[in-house]
Amino acid sequence: MPQLMAALRLLTRACVADARAACEHRGSSGFPGGDCMGTESTRPARRQPWPACLAGLLFLFVFQSVAAGPQVEIEPGMLAGERLSNAVDVYRGIPYAAAPTGQWRWRPPRPVEHWDGVRDATKYGPMCPQRDPRDTAPDWIKAHFAAVSRSEDCLNLNVWTPVERDGPLPVMVYIHGGNMKFGSGSYPVYDGRVLAADGVVLVTINYRLGFLGRFAHPALTARHRDEPLVNYGLQDQIAALEWVQRNIAAFGGDPDKVTIFGHSAGGVSVNYLMVAPPAKGLFHRAIAQGSGVLIDADRHGFEPGPPGPVAESSEQLGLKLARHFGIEPGDPRALDKLYALTPEQVIEYQSGMQDSLNPAVDGKTVPDHLVRMFERGEQHDVPYIGGTNSWEWNQIAVNVPLIGQWFMAGKLLEGLSDEDLAVFDDQWTRIGVSHRWFAEGLFLTSTRYLAKQMAKVSSPAWLYRVTYVQQNLRGEVPGAAHGMEVPFIFGHLREHPEYQRPQNVPLTEADLAWGDTLRAYWIRFAYTGDPNGDGRPVWPEYRPDSDITMELGTQIRPHPRMDSETLDYLEQHALKRRARFLAGSSP
User: Fold this and answer.
1) At what angle do helices 446-453 and 564-582 cross, to 10 degrees?
2) Would you say 274 and 384 are in contact if contact means Cβ atoms under 8 Å apart?
3) What residue segments make up the domains of the chain, in order of their start?
4) Distances (CA, A) of 561 to 385, 447, 542
5) pLDDT tens, 78-117?
6) What's the rounded Cα separation, in Å, for the pair 509 and 116?
């Protein structure tokens, strides 16, 4: 920096001297005393002999403004970030993989090329292609879409790190949700400055979404048979974790203390990373929040799966997409035509899909059905937290077509007797039972079931249920909404209450204190692999025999056998359905 300022001073003096000399040369006959000013009418027309000087000054001023922020050197080159007011440095829009465009669409992520000079990392990089937010989306999401571009060249991440560090800090890598079709690590609600100020290095990532992130087609399989196929978004997440291993020490992070955490589709991603062989050793703790996975079925990449709700393979879906655009099976130019599709065409095609695009069994990145791999003890042996919220079925509000086509059409409740339905409260209508089944079967039951399977490895597991409702919402909603805990964990609600779910509810100090406690559990887990400590209520490890769930509500307390009768029933029902699917029969 001193050398830069010295160069700036020297160039400024040279430019001033050059300008004065040029002016005096022309003004000696027209201006008393060689005055270079004159009036508009008396001043002679001047040519400008020193534009290069001005250009040099402009370059140095711009460079100095970038260089004034924090800088860090990583494998591909130098980065210049921004120093925030709370003594946190942030580096935005860092590419962790090359652009997956053209013939590299639907291919594994590739390394970034080295760059010369200092790369500006003060602005977010593009989001991955996705549709515009709904009309009902919060204003802050609409504003973010207006401010940040979308592009296939979207494989970038963001890092927040405290300025003052006594040594390497734990790293927390957040994987955003959005049904595998929406979202970005650059959303303002995921800003990591509060978590970083609390003593961790926080990383948020983008990954390919929708059919750009999970896709298969026979022509693609034939040409790239030896590569990992299908699950390109999951491969991106693994590439981001590899980047963390190689580079996070430069930001003050400890590559041997990496916690992955995510909500909804991000929580699903955490669970798939737990069984992905290429992800082994890239993280050391895992938190899956609001992860909905199926016990009884899983998606398949190539061959159709057993009869069930997700029997259609990724290749079958890919053939449908191709036919929609006039690309017939067996067309020798099928791949070229698929590559020629614009991202907007692909996104528009998938906009009618209600089902998620969760990872599919591909034999490499996802070797087998997620749940069966957990059952066999093939998950990575790392400390694990899994949990859900008590009102997950508020997600029904945005998935009614899916419920109509799948659940309420009978596939969910098929074969249930009145005695079966009596497991639920009498006041629930059949539609209400569908809603509860969606939430408790897809979220609560599967989350507890995966926690049970952690007994197959040596690392401990913890289970939670968020039941907390903001004080000014009590009596108006039946429980904690899907994702309501996320903004509390990131810690921005004091300044941005609009980030909460549901929105625009005045928050109390009790609400904010509850969020501080939740965030402290997460940070402690990142430090030690155990959420306990610092005087908070003791959170017992989850064991199948004691079946203790930590209730994160107005009271934070261990809750033995929480809703166990209902969850036991749903678990057994799902396992029986799976047996029928594998035997080749319908539900």
Assistant:
1) 80
2) yes
3) 2-33+51-68, 72-582
4) 17, 14, 11
5) 999 999 988 999 999 999 999 999 999 999 999 999 999 9
6) 49
